Amino acid sequence: MLAGVRGLQLHADVLQDTPQLEVLLAANAGLQQFPAAVLACPGLRQLSLSSNSMSSLPVEVTQLTRLSELDVSNNQLSSLPPQLGLLSGSLRVLQLEGNCLRTIRRPILDKGTASVLDWLRDRIPA
User: Fold this and answer.
1) Over the range 63-84, which residues count as b (16 or more CB within 10 Å of their CB) and which as e?
2) 32-43 burial, b if ≥16 CB within 10 A, otherwise e?
3) Contact 43, 65 (CB under 8 A)
4) pLDDT single digits (tens) 1-34
5) Are 107 and 83 within 8 A, CB to CB?
6) Is the pTM higher than 0.85?
7) Residue 80 near residue 61 (C-beta atoms within 8 A)
């Protein structure tokens, strides 16, 4: 399909024509930051950005209100936006392994997605 492709740039205008897109797998894509073009896919349910070099997730990821699976494992994340906790109604799987999350203690991470989202939601600034 894309054999031999060494780079692929996602533009918002390309993804804007795919509001029905439900699955986007961009693992091992060499991403250094969250691809803003993803925000043009409101129907996204599964997003894999694992094994990249992202150091942060933007607050805007919370615009993906139908997201049920988010895999950001094996990146360089040191924290998560507290607003990610607002996705607790839809987000069932949050993969965080392999990141240096300094703000969330291991016992909370070990309890799973619901506990992490609750912890984040409790830290949303008033």
Assistant:
1) ebeebebbbbbbbebeebbbbb
2) eebbebbbbbee
3) no
4) 455 545 555 554 555 556 678 999 999 999 999 9
5) no
6) yes
7) no
